[in-house]
Amino acid sequence: MKRTLIVLALLCVAVLVLHSAQVTVQGQGQGNGQGSGGSSEVQAGRRAVPPEITLNLQGRNPSRVYEGSYYVNGVSDCIGCHNGPDTDESGNAIPLAERYLAGGQNFGPVFSRNLTPDVNGLPAGLTFERFVQVIRQGRDFKEFPPVIGNPDTLIVMPWPSYRHGTDRWLRAVYEYLQSVPCLPGGPLENAATRCDE
Predict the structure, then answer these.
(1) What value does the mean pLDDT take over residues 132-157?
(2) Residue 103 — left, alpha, or beta (φ > 0 → left; ψ -120 to 50 → alpha)?
(3) Are 72 and 98 in contact (CB under 8 A)?
(4) Do the beta carbons of residue 67 and residue 179 sit within 8 Å?
(5) What is the band of 31 on the pLDDT scale with cuts at 50, 70, 90?
(6) Annotated domain spans of the chain
(7) Interatomic CA distance for residues 120 and 178, integer angstroms
(8) What 3-state class would DSSP assign to 167?
(9) Taking a C-beta distance cutoff of 8 angstroms, is the pair 74, 175 a contact?
(10) Measured between alpha carbons, how far is 6 from 62 in angstroms, rounded to an integer?
(11) What is the rounded average pLDDT of the residues 33-59?
(12) Which residue spans within the chain are E strands per DSSP?
């Protein structure tokens, strides 16, 4: 009888240990690049690239670019504000390929910026160092009205939340933006020719 109780107790302990190990293994995806669906940010980012958009991956780290896509097209929702309007003044539909991250959404006194790379391959015409200042400090290098603060500070962009992003997040977003097609648009004098060589 004593032997049976010991065997039963050992079996119970073994079941608890196995159950605990299973729960631990199932939970390892969180915070480890393995979202709840078992998909990494890179895999999810690859799927998030709109089919109308052809990325330029030449000379780039595809994993970092697709991780950036995961943020731009997904959790950071850059496309929510930075895709251009979906119709023109006459109400005609504008294809996504002609407005993807090209800015121009009206937010009262301000509008979203064109994030596509210029002819020099710089997203929104910004070097990486300036891009970091935009995201971390809300710095507006375009200095369009209304001017707020000194230096000019972005008033709609959620940079107060984005400023907490990691260096890896910033680099991935920047490299993704470098890989998207250049599109004309924006308020600069060269807006129509910003993609011409």
Answers:
(1) 81
(2) left
(3) no
(4) no
(5) very low
(6) 41-179
(7) 10
(8) helix
(9) no
(10) 56
(11) 85
(12) 106-107, 110-111
